[in-house]
Design a protein that fits this description.
The chain has 14 helices and 15 strands. By secondary structure, the chain is an alpha/beta fold. It folds into three domains: about 150 residues, no CATH class; about 260 residues, TIM Barrel, CATH 3.20.20.370; about 45 residues. Strands 5, 6, 7, 8, 9, 12, 13, 14 and 15 form a nine-stranded parallel sheet that branches. Strands 2-1-3-4 form a four-stranded parallel sheet, with helices on one face. Helix 1 links the parallel strand 1 and strand 2. Helix 1 packs across helix 4 and helix 9 packs across helix 10. The radius of gyration is 24 Å and the shape is elongated. The two termini are about 20 Å apart.
């Protein structure tokens, strides 16, 4: 389909403006073709010259602060028919959120022990915007002004009839049945034979035996190895998800106490991973707690997971969402490690949008004033944010439905994260969590306005968009 095209000029050449312009074009369906400074034919002008003829002027503001950044714009676009000036600096507003300017000087106590920004100490929380993808709202607001002031046909970036996109994902933290200590004991004994971490490994083995005995006493039939059940439940509803699996455990040389307690190369993991890739489900890397921004370690983890699964691994999510602070170095490391997408940017304790955006995007790194080439898919919510004990599945679904309504209003794209051992009622302890997830699947499958996509599908679409932009730039 041919896109509308408007002449665009910015007074100052800024890399972020070129970056953000592509984001604007994707959401509005209108190409903003840069023009020379001397060109009189300008449709959209970004600058301070109030006398310059144009259909729509975006005023320049050097930067916004928490006190001055625009809040959610009025969807009615009041004033659009009486003024040619957009009501705020779109590019500075986008930068405030996407470059995380509101938290650049945040104190240490705004972060938790894992270097994650606390949701309750965020600018989003302060402004009442934690669950509102404000970047999307700015872009949709500007789209309405383009339609009214420039008289062009604007389009949604979503397929016809779709109002939002949801990506299903699972962090695989505990895929071994809790009453069975063999896997952990086997990994610990292998370490002892190699003389690696002897004290810790012996403690892990002893702990596994004790915990298994307790589990069998409390719930003899408890199961955490639920790959097949989860895939069956999703496929029965026409859905698919991605499983983020760790390739480093606490038994490994670089493993930390916070890392997972399973070895991806030991049974039953390799068989399960090959089965899920055979069935068309996604496989991603759950990056080890201590790897953070270490591209070499992440590469080694990716290769070990690929060897266990017999399939390529294209994406990631950090275990505990533990990244460098600020997280730009971690996001940069993904590309050097051969990854194409990541889904680690989110809040840990409450639903919301960590960078204010609900779209797949190439993050902007303010430290080197350039985009990061690896696609980031924001995660809006995790199971533990929505399930509160005691909690009935219908209450969880109602809470999720509210998030989904907000995502629809924003024409948003976001992932949800449900751990593998909580995604199906395989144990008494997590039965309510599993029932809630199945109810969430029912809600998604029954809503014709929601499109459920995989990460790989989003990457392919983003690559196509990038190719179109490159082609259009070459023609200019």
């Amino acid at each position: 389909m041919a896109h509308a095209e408007l002449a665009f000029h910015a007074d100052a050449a800024e890399p972020f403006v070129d970056y953000a312009r592509e984001l604007v074009e994707r959401v509005t369906g209108v190409r903003l073709r840069p023009t020379d400074e001397g060109s009189a034919d300008v449709d959209v002008y970004y600058g301070d010259d109030v006398r310059r003829p144009c259909r729509l002027r975006i005023p320049r503001v050097p930067s916004y602060t928490t006190a001055t950044v625009p809040r959610l714009p009025d969807a009615s676009a009041e004033g659009v028919h009486t003024s040619s000036d957009f009501p705020y600096d779109l590019f500075s507003a986008l930068r405030f959120w996407l470059a995380d300017e509101g938290h650049a000087e945040a104190s240490d106590d705004a972060f938790d022990e894992h270097d994650r920004l606390r949701a309750d100490r965020s600018v989003q929380e302060t402004l009442g915007l934690r669950e509102a993808p404000v970047v999307n709202a700015y872009l949709l607001h500007f789209r309405s002004w383009l339609a009214a002031r420039a008289g062009v046909d604007v389009t949604s970036h979503l397929p016809s009839g779709t109002r939002c996109v949801v990506v299903l994902s699972h962090d695989v933290d505990s895929p071994i049945d809790p009453g069975s200590p063999q896997h952990v004991v086997g990994a610990a004994l292998a370490n002892l034979r190699r003389g690696r971490k002897p004290v810790q490994s012996a403690a892990y083995a002893a702990g596994a035996v004790v915990n298994a005995a307790r589990s069998r006493f409390r719930d003899p039939r408890a199961r955490h190895e639920l790959f097949t059940e989860i895939m069956d439940a999703e496929q029965a509803r026409g859905l698919r998800s991605t499983f983020f699996v760790a390739a480093v455990s606490r038994f490994d040389a670089h493993g930390r106490r916070r890392d997972v307690g399973y070895d991806v190369a030991r049974a039953p993991l390799p068989h399960a991973l090959r089965e899920l890739t055979r069935r068309g489900f996604g496989l991603g890397l759950h990056i080890a707690y201590g790897s953070q921004g270490d591209a070499e370690r992440i590469t080694a983890e990716r290769e070990r997971l690929e060897a266990a699964a017999g399939a390529p691994v294209r994406g990631s999510r950090h275990h505990y969402w533990h990244m460098t602070r600020p997280f730009w170095a971690s996001l940069e490391a993904h590309g050097r490690a051969g990854l194409h997408y990541d889904s680690s940017v989110g809040f840990n304790a409450a639903p919301g949008y960590r960078l204010g955006i609900a779209l797949p995007f190439r993050p902007w790194n303010p430290e080197r004033e350039a985009p990061i080439p690896v696609l980031q898919v924001p995660t809006v919510a995790m199971d533990s944010m929505l399930v509160r004990e005691p909690s009935e599945p219908h209450a969880v679904v109602e809470r999720f439905a509210g998030l989904l309504s907000g995502l629809k209003r924003a024409e948003g794209v976001a992932a949800i994260d449900w751990h593998e051992y909580t995604s199906f009622p395989g144990s008494r302890k997590y039965a309510a969590w599993g029932q809630a997830y199945l109810a969430v699947l029912d809600l998604l499958a029954s809503d014709a306005e929601v499109l459920v996509r995989t990460y790989d599908e989003l990457v392919e679409e983003a690559d196509l968009v990038s190719a179109r932009h490159a082609s259009a730039a070459a023609r200019r």
